[in-house]
Amino acid sequence: MRLEVSLYGDKSAVLGWQQLFEQEKTPYRYAGTEVTSLSSVNVVTGYPEGQIPAKNLASNDQILIVEPQGDYHQTQKTLQHSSIVFDHNITQLPRNASLELLDPRCGPNTAPMLRQLIVESYHRLNKPYVQIWYYSEPKPTVFLLRQDIDYVDIKATRSLGRLSAKHGIHGTYFVNVSGEEEFDEDIGHLTLEHPTTPDRIEPLSRLISGDNEIGNHGYWHWVFPDVQRNKENIRRAYTFLTGRLHTPVKGYASPGAEWNSELQRALEACHMEYSSDGLRDGGFPFFPYVSGKFASTLEVPCYVQCDASFEKPDFPALSGIIQDYFLKLITTNLNTHQPIAILGHPDFHGDRLEEFYAPIFRAINKHHIPSMSMGEYARWWKKRQGMNILCDLADNMLTVTSQNTGFAVSVTTNKGNWLYPMVVSHHTTNTLRVVL
Predict the structure, then answer these.
(1) What does the entry give for GO biological process (predicted)?
(2) Could you say which of 115, 147, 153, 384 would form a disulfide bridge with 347 (CB–CB 3.0 to 4.6 Å)?
(3) For domain 1-127, which architecture applies?
(4) For the packed helices 227-245 and 261-269, what is the interaxial angle rounded to 10 degrees?
(5) CATH 1.10.150.120 is right for the domain spanning 143-381
């Protein structure tokens, strides 16, 4: 028996589900608008509420997940206020449930909830949920250290570089160039005759030699309302960083987690490989859906709560709040398997930087969590997007085949979750067999 999800509905109505299944890399097929030839698990979109299609087709070894759709703008955030209705082997979702995934600033709970619904549907049929794992190694999660060092506080940047090297942590450091403050309601735009970052190259070179990544935080610490100035901001920073540091700069992080569609267009025009713009509070990478299409620049989310959630003079006395939050994230994400992507600003910590980060780094190493730069993870995620698997179940034997290699297979049953490296074959098709 082939294990895959069949997806029914108009192409425009299934985009949210397709985004979810591409995140999961679990086998699925778009089956058109006519509900026939059901798989074990089937998602049907676009039908009016109360008119469940193919009700008589759902047998004991098939599940229908039905999602009515209507005016999305009148039903936003529906998952937070509506119930999922289970009726034997038919599951009724709230209206437009999956379309929330197309909102670039979608809430953090929508994708996990819909994913869990698919997983539990397989479990209700006593079948496994199989996917290409989220990481290149068979590990429960990864650690992504994002640091916005802005105009490069020399002492703090050196200190964090030494500490992270001591613990084997590789991070991504986003840099501004001008030294000018952002536009402020009280003081306007503070301009400087000469940019400050060119005089602070040495600690950046040390970071690069320590196998860290340098990212683009804009020439000015600002996001503009138009495409042209955003492009200029990105390109000027890129030219400076690549020219002075002789290192690839493929990632961008928006100052202050500000974002608009004009920035997204600028990122694509500048051919940025990925960005981290605070669109979502943690979670897996995704391609934002903007102006009726999926963007080509990958968004790599991080958790937005950080030291900059406080006023800088107040933070040293309150740093324990964020430290506890990060330590709890490690425990939580070991179970949810989402990336542990934390954000910080070294200059906020003063002389207490090591006191803040050392326990976090020790916890990462204690649990043997791999550390990656954001660029490394973005490149892995894009490579993973091109991978596919086929899954067949006969009696208690699960057979997974793929023409791709270099990944792990996740098998989840109602008894637990197991990770298996994909077996490399001398043939064109690689095969993994698991006895359940």
Answers:
(1) carbohydrate metabolic process
(2) 153
(3) 3-Layer(aba) Sandwich (3.40)
(4) 40
(5) no
